[in-house]
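User: Hey, quick favor. My workstation is busy. Could you predict this chain's structure for me?
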Amino acid sequence: MARTIRLGERLMKIAGMVKRGASIIDVGTDHAYLPAYLLLCGAIDAAKASDIRPGPIARAEQTRRRFCLKDRLELFVCPGLRDFSTSDADTIIIAGMGGETIAAILDEAPWTRDGLHRLILQPMTSPGELRRYLFENGYEIYDEVLARDRGRLYTILDARGGGPGDSARLPFEYFASRHVLGDDLAGAYLELQLNRIGKRIDGLLHSRTPGRGELSFLRDAVDGLTQLKREWEECRR
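Assistant: No problem, here it is.
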């Protein structure tokens, strides 16, 4: 019987962020490959995994049976974190869904703001909307890890509640944090963000009623990200 699971680079980076001995909830688990991998390599002793649909949980059950993890991996059919509470885990992993969806899941679980729970968040889309939600609702980003998987670049945020709960951030912080400066992929990621913002600016400039406030915000973000990219390049010399 196989005793290992091979993860893609995105999930491997997430797995590497989980502290040894953590108790986790993997939200939107699908096949439960991530918690199964962590259990099999001895990083954690037990895990919980959930998905909103029965189909993914059925696939997760196949993984649980295949690797004899019935007593160590609990499976739940529920939306987001609705069936969980503060004592169920110290680490919450929400990966592989849109940033707005992740924000909605956190919004329905206000106990995640208590500063006692580590949040490992990997948005597939709308990372800026997720960052905005975190900033405005008392979460802080303590680290940011980048991953390249199947030709795409992803950001993985390490967040925790207990922050000031305001949106007084520099514009570039809605697209990337200074934590990426030590990441080999930061140059490519920052360039990607600059290209995306450039397209948004072009779109606004060609619209009949460009929002001057948004234009100013985006231009300031470009300045901040450009400076961040320069700092990253200097660190590599």
